[in-house]
Amino acid sequence: MTGATIARTGPDHRAAFRASTFADVLRSEWVKFRSVRSTFWALTVTVVLGVGLGAVISAAAAHGYAKSSASAKLSWDPTGVSQAGVAIASLAIVVLGVLCISSEYSSGMIRTSLIAVPKRGRVLAAKALVFAVVTFVVGEVTCFAAFFVGQALISGHAPHAALGDPGVARAVVGGGLYLAALAVLSVAAGALLRHPAAGIACTMAVVLVLPLIAQALPDSWRNPVTEFWPTQAGAQLTSVYHSAHTLQPWPGFGVMCLFVAIVYAIAWTLLDRRDA
Amino acid sequence: MIEAHGLVKRYGSTMAVNDLSFSIRPGMVTGFLGPNGAGKTTTMRMILGLDAPTQGSVTVGGRSYRDLPAPMREVGALLDAKALHGGRRAFDHLLCLARSNGIPRSRVDEVLHIVGLQSVARRRAKGLSLGMGQRLGIASALLGDPAVLIFDEPVNGLDPDGIHWVRTLMRELAAEGRTVLVSSHLMSEMALTADHLLVIGKGRLIADTSVDEFVQSSSQQSVHVRSPQAAELAALCRDAGATVQAGTGPDVIEITGMDSADVGKLAAAHGIALFELIPVKASLEEAFMELTQDSVEYRAAGETR
């Protein structure tokens, strides 16, 4: 077919090769991550929804402010309003996180990946790390952009927030951290369930559906759920005001991180033990 | 060098691989032959650390695959050419594999050149034909310039030109001193490519032999005879120790255990007229089928051999 030689040196005369490292696996996962189109689209959706939806909600809420009740004015939260889009955008992160490993199972790529890197824990760790870092960067950009756009639209119609106000900078930065934790959770869930639809459905249920169901429960049930449910607790990091039966920002985020670590540990153990 | 000791893989109540021991030596192409469902792929998956053996062990170069420090530089494998992300470009697919083992980017261009895929390197994998996909899989196996190569049914989906190319490549790789293990369910394919054969059926090792020996030992020779006194000749042959089976007509018999010269002399001595006397040599394919006929997993209803 071609006259090219297969080996540059032949197998017996090769220079001693170095062992594969975790940094190699990180580079490999970065290539995988940037070389599929779903990455670009999911991150675009994250930014567009986060900033765009935040802008629409901010403008609408600011215009309604003057006619709202006194109690509504009392609980007016300009930061929360501008970040409302980020909560919806987080769903794109869940989808991309689950897909980036479960699509390897549905395509069979996982076998190729695990033959290349038989130390399986490295594959999971590299995937989670690459995706968490990208999500953190994109998340911070989205949260800050949503904040500035939102406050610009609110100012003149209603009281607006500034980064220097108490708790505001922490809440905006916290948005990126919350998304990064969610990113690790999604990758772990994808590795655990190995099926795109199952992974997305289960993670969505944890993030979105179960907390909504809890709202319908009697107080004695609802309060501990809203306080300790991992994603609810973690979201405290992203809000300036805290209602009753919620954890403080950092302890709340700690609860979420603990949950993510447990799911990750289960995913890691099963990945290592199951036949691929 | 690949060595297996008492390899067993059980899925629930199914015994996929049953007490398999072998060693595969460098410098030759070893054919891994067996009917579909015989356990070839399962064995290869265990060699590559994808499946854990229920019992026993298998090593590559003396080490378990999962303990290799830079696996792609020691073992190149093609299990399933479709096991890739269809949305990724051929070049990026190879690049992400190369990166994982610290293989330089320039080697990706080299292997694309070796398999003749430079012109479609920017194409997404799902846009590649079956044959091009197979070449891409072979390219990924060659990335690390490994001393051990494992290919599962590499000629599947290739046109005659491609099949010839793969055969030549396997032989070249072996001639360079590498260990080459190639699976196939086609004996005729193995006869052209392999030097040595591992034959398995229903997860058990049936033969571990050179291709030449395999053909000689298992190709059964028989003699086809047509005679108006077929029944009389059959009785004489049986007395002489041969096995006789009825043929396609009342005057046709198939004799095994006696060569055509002896049958002819026997007939002459008893004044039996012969219309046809034909020595029949079993083909490789028949030899293989005969060897594995008790171990075929799936067979059409009513089909007997």
Domains counted in the coordinates of chain A: how many?
1
Helix share of residues of chain A? over 70%
Number-wise, the strands of chain A total 0
Count the DSSP helices of chain B: 11
Number of domains of chain B: 2
Ends distance of chain A? 34 Å
Could you name the CATH topology of the largest domain in chain B?
Rossmann fold
Q: Distance between termini of chain B?
A: 37 Å
Low-confidence stretches of chain A: 8-14
- Shape category of chain B: elongated
Mean pLDDT of chain B: 90
Quick one: CATH class of the largest domain in chain B?
A: Alpha Beta
Largest sheet of chain B: 6 strands, mixed
Can you tell me the overall shape of chain A?
elongated
Q: Percent of residues of chain A in beta strands? A: under 5%
Strand order of the largest sheet of chain B: 5-6-7-3-8-9
Q: Report the total helices of chain A.
A: 12
Fold and architecture overview:
The complex is a heterodimer of chains A (about 280) and B (about 300). Chain A has about 280 residues and is mainly α. Chain A has one domain. Chain A is about 75% helix and about 0% strand. Chain A contains 12 helices and no strands. In chain A, α2 runs antiparallel to α5, α5 packs parallel to α8 and α7 packs antiparallel against α8. The two termini of chain A are about 35 Å apart. About 5% of the residues of chain A have low confidence. Chain B folds into 2 domains: about 220 residues, P-loop containing nucleotide triphosphate hydrolases (Rossmann fold); about 60 residues, Alpha-Beta Plaits (2-Layer Sandwich). Helices cover about 35% and strands about 25% of the residues of chain B. Chain B is built from 11 helices and 13 strands. A 6-stranded mixed beta sheet of chain B has the order 5-6-7-3-8-9, sandwiched between helices. In chain B, strands 11-12-10-13 form a 4-stranded antiparallel beta sheet, covered by helices on one side. In chain B, strands 2-1-4 form a 3-stranded antiparallel beta sheet, covered by helices on one side. In chain B, α3 crosses α4. Chain B is elongated and about 80 Å long. The two termini of chain B are about 35 Å apart. The chains are: A mainly alpha (about 280), B alpha/beta (about 300). Chains A and B meet through α1, α5 and α6 of A and α2, α3, α4 and α6 of B.
